Write the structure tokens for this entry.
Amino acid sequence: MRYMKPLNLFQGLLKIPAVERGRLLGLDVGDKYVGLAVSDFNNKVASPLSVLVRKKSNIDLMALDFQHLINELSLSGFIVGYPYDRRKNSPNATQVKVFVDDLTKTGKLDGVPYTFWEECFSTKNVEVLLKPFNFHPVETKTISDKFAAVGILQGYLDVVNRHTVTEQSQ
């Protein structure tokens, strides 16, 4: 995996012809699950995809899952939710870094570009919205992880698309 600054990742995509461009995958990394969301082919709208179980012992299997998704969904990069805390390094931020480092060490995702994107409160926001529905706790967790990934990816897409439109109009 190869880190890129958020705007550079998107600008790199725009240099590829539209028919070959590919989509983006949003990741909400938690201690037990990784919520996934995928963009449309125009990289404008995020949709929920699935949830992967996260264990230290299954990182190779997760890397294989990501390889499969890259091929199946024509993915061009990952947008990884990152809980920025300006005052200190949070445990959640550390676990996201460890997850990305572990995926990178497998060697199965060499060259796949990724970037980090602000994700503070993404899961909490979804949980508040789901509370009135009284879903089973397990169902609430999987739904909230997927939709937190949607929030992360959609936030990224909104900003980079707005920046691109502004840049082109100047």
Observations:
- The mean pLDDT is 88.
- The chain has one domain: 2-169.
